[in-house]
Design goal:
mainly beta; 6-stranded antiparallel beta sheet; 4-stranded antiparallel beta sheet; elongated
């Protein structure tokens, strides 16, 4: 499960289904963007889906082979950032980011960038992330 922008790994064997590449991948009926592919792993980026939408993961190869894992994907509500305090700073400024579902329905926040610069996570929860 995940939300728009989630990287999803699809693992298995013979994922090309006798072909040489992946044509299309659908998560709960919504076309995903293929990020990388091999015969044993496909990584896709989930597109925009409606919260609660669930369904099959479907892989269609360049030969038309269809590989399906039934009822294996569910879309969640997107994360929302409500506030960043302070909204400016310099190196080593402590910044608090507040919002909802900041973990994106995962176990933790893995990376935060401020103006394109990676920040060190000091503390994180689903509603608040503190970085330096």
């Amino acid at each position: 499960s995940g939300q728009s922008g989630t990287l999803v790994s699809i693992n298995g064997t013979r994922l090309f289904g006798g072909g040489t590449s992946i044509d299309t991948v659908y998560l709960a009926g919504i076309r995903a963007v293929v990020f990388s592919e091999s015969a044993t792993q496909i990584v896709v980026v989930a597109s925009n889906g409606t919260n609660g939408t669930s369904g099959n993961v479907t892989v269609i190869t360049n030969t038309g082979s269809v590989i399906t894992l039934n009822e294996s994907w569910r879309y969640h509500v997107p994360s929302v950032i409500d506030a960043i305090d302070p909204g400016y700073g310099q190196e080593n400024t402590i910044v608090t980011i507040s919002g909802t579902s900041l973990r994106g329905f995962g176990n933790n926040v893995a990376l935060v960038t401020l103006a394109g610069v990676e920040s060190r996570i000091v503390n994180e929860s689903d509603t608040e992330v503190v970085v330096i």
